Amino acid sequence: MNETAMDSKTFMDTGLPLFAGLPHKIADLSPESVRFGRKELDLALVEMPGLVALREEYAGLKPLQGAKIMGSLHMTIQTAALIETLVQLGAEVRWVSCNIFSTQDHAAAAAVAGPDGSAQTPRGVPVFAWKGETLSEYWWCTLQALVWPDGSGPNLILDDGGDATLVVHMGCEYEQSGEIPAVETADSQELGVILSLLHQVRAARGDRFWHGLASTIRGVSEETTTGVHRLYERVENGTLLFPAINVNDSVTKSKFDNVYGCRHSLVDAIMRATDVLIAGKRALVCGFGDVGKGSVQSLRGQSARVAVTEVDPICALQACMLGIDVVTIDDVVEDFDIFVTTTGNKSIIGVRHMRRMKHNAIVCNIGHFDNEIDMGDLEKLVAAGEVDKIQIKPQVHEYHFKTTTHGPEGRGHSILVLAEGRLVNLGCATGHPSFVMSASFTNQVMAQMELHKNAESYGKTVTVLPKHLDEKVARLHLGKFGAKLTTLTEEQARYIGVPVDGPYKSDLYRY
User: Fold this and answer.
1) In whole angstroms, what is the distance from residue 492 CA to residue 327 CA?
2) Which of 71, 368, 376, 460 is most buried per CB count within 10 Å?
3) pLDDT for 486-510, tens place per residue?
């Protein structure tokens, strides 16, 4: 079979050619969807002063001219504002969502149409994303966003969770070793899909495709904890192919997104999904890092009775100092009404816990991926006929355990799983509010500009943006609140050993 024929072979169950060459693939490019997305985008920009300030600061300068940015990040209204900021600064952009449930279809429509286009004559960016993708569709979308119409690839990646970075590295590693593992060896459904993609790409494009793609990538900026962890692992193993900027650990990202964003969006998602009264319910938050702290604040704000689980003694002590019980899930699982995972780790809530939960306990994740809750093992019970899976509405499912005896009338109990274990605030609601994402995305734009200008000077390392840029992001947002900063005198600055204009804290300072 020749290359053209292999390119047109459909990928798994998608019905879509492997290398489709499509200008975009979204759910709805109707005038109504474009209008809705554009109006929400206009409203969001009022709440995104950081991105607006960067557009004004670099107006006409095009600091990203020549940048070819592949973005893998939730395709929301706020992301559309990020995309159009990158384009205004000179970048050429292609985009994919980083989660099968997080796309807001009207946001995708607005991004494809562009600020100067329409549904009939789109002039925006190529987007490959829609809400409710299958895993095979998701990885197909990632491949489409990585490959430009002329067959070239990006020179920068903007990643969230590291999936785009992951597939490039895996592709290169298997080209180097000469052998791609068999799909049957995969220990998860998602890995099986990735291996299927790599096998089919090799059949279509040979055994140097990924090396060619990676050779032009100058760097990546990574949005979130799990993706950053993957990058640091590659640095330790000596396998990182290009420089990376860790956006997640900028204070104006980690605090705004992880704490204040979750404080807003967790209960928003639970209430939209279930309409349950949270007040008085017992809620267990697994993890008390930044995401856990925001989640606890969210639930306490609705007068839930909250406890946490922790492995880190410092985080656990912080919880105790706030009057929050620190427990283990095994000890208390029968007593709680709501369970929220926030850790970024795997196998936090297993089937053994779900079997013991109260009837109609709510289970959700606001950490990352879908493996904080062992959805794979739960689905195995569904396949075996031991558990019934009942869709209440999209992204809200009842799992009915047939053989337990603590449900109604001594029969089997049920639990409610939100967003199939994936990010509940994006699957069941609209994610973090625009102001929060302005802080995160201002960091992303500055990271992309830094990589575009200086990537080669970093080497194959992971770097956090310098403190003065972190403070700049904060400054850009203070005007929205009418805040006025105090200015140090020269004498005061000398006394504490900092410049008058900052930065004001050492890199070791804990905010």
Assistant:
1) 46
2) 71
3) 999 999 999 999 999 999 999 889 8
